[in-house]
Amino acid sequence: MKASESTPVGDHAQDRRRAREQRGLVSASRAVKGEHLPPAPRERRPLLAALAVLLIAGGAAGAGLLALRADERVPVLVAARDIAAGEAIAEDALTTTSVASEGTRLIPASQTNIVSGKYARVSITKGQLLDTAMLTPTALLQPGSVAVGASLASGRMPASGLLPGDVVQLVRVADGTGKVLVEQARVSSYHAADRATTGSGVAAATFIVPSQDGAQIAAVAAAGDLAVVLVERGTGGGG
C-alpha cells in the first residue's frame, strides 16, 4: 500500500481534539446566552430529606393526638342484658364501659341512680350503650291502654319495618277500602319476618292502644285485615 493512501495516527488525534474544542465552544456559547444545564441529581437530596423530616414529625403528632384521645375515655352506662321496650330499667340491667363520649348523649356511669326506674323507649340489646333518647320517664302501657299483638303480612306495613316506640295508625283494609281504627298507636315490640326459618313473610308486632279499641284491633288482626301506617319514627315518649 502507498504512503499517500494511508491515514496517519496523528490525523485522528487532531480530529478528536478539534471536535472537543468545538464542543467546548458550544457550551461556552450557551453559558453566555444564559442557558443553564439541568442541576445534578444530588441537588434534590436536601429537599427529599426535608420532606422525610416533615412526614416523621406529622406521624409523631398523629400518634400523640391518638394518645390524648385515649386518655379522654370516660365510663358510661351499658346494658348488662336485653331490655324490652316499655320495661322498667332495674339497676341489675346496667353495667359500665369506657368510651370517648364527647359530643354524644351517652349516659355517664355516675347516673345509674337516675336511670334506674326509667322505662325503655325502645328495645335495648345486651352490650348496647345507653343514651338519653332510649329512655322515657313513663311506661308505654298506661292505665286505660292495652297491648295487642298482630301478625302483619308483607305490604301491610312500611317496607323498612317497624321499630319499638314508633307511632302508627292502625287501619282495617277490606274490599279495597281502608278505615282508621286507631289514630295513634305505639309499637311496643316488633319482630321482622324470617323466611329462612318460618317460610313466610309474616312479621309480628305488639301495639299499645286505648283499652276500648283493644278487642276490635285483635279481631281485625286475626282476620288478616290489619294494616299499619307509620306516623312518627320511635322517638316520642310513652303515655
Describe this structure in words.
This protein is of the alpha+beta class. It folds into three domains: 41-71; 74-136, Alpha-Beta Complex (Type Iii Antifreeze Protein Isoform Hplc 12); 145-232. It contains five helices and nine strands. The protein has helices at residues 9-32, 45-71, 112-115, 195-198, 214-222; strands spanning 74-79, 94-99, 119-120, 135-136, 145-152, 167-174, 177-191, 203-210, 226-232. It has a five-stranded antiparallel sheet, covered by helices on one side. Strands 1-2 form a two-stranded antiparallel ribbon. Strands 3-4 form a two-stranded antiparallel sheet. The chain is elongated. Residues 1-6 have low confidence and may be disordered.
Characteristic terms for this protein:
single chain; 239 residues; two-stranded antiparallel ribbon; Type Iii Antifreeze Protein Isoform Hplc 12; 5 helices; disordered N terminus; 3 domains; alpha+beta
Euclidean distance between termini CA atoms: 125 Å
- How much helix is in the residues? 25-40%
**Number of separate structural domains:** 3
β-strand number = 9
| Class from helix and strand fractions | alpha+beta
Radius of gyration: 40 Å
Widest β-sheet, arrangement of strands: 5-8-7-6-9
Give the biggest sheet.
5 strands, antiparallel
Summarize the helix and strand pattern as letters.
HHEEHEEEEEHEHE
Count of alpha/pi helices: 5
Q: What's the average pLDDT?
A: 77
Query: What sort of overall outline do the alpha carbons produce when their principal axes are compared?
Result: elongated
Sequence stretches where pLDDT stays below 50 over 5 or more residues: 1-6
Beta-strand proportion: 25-35%
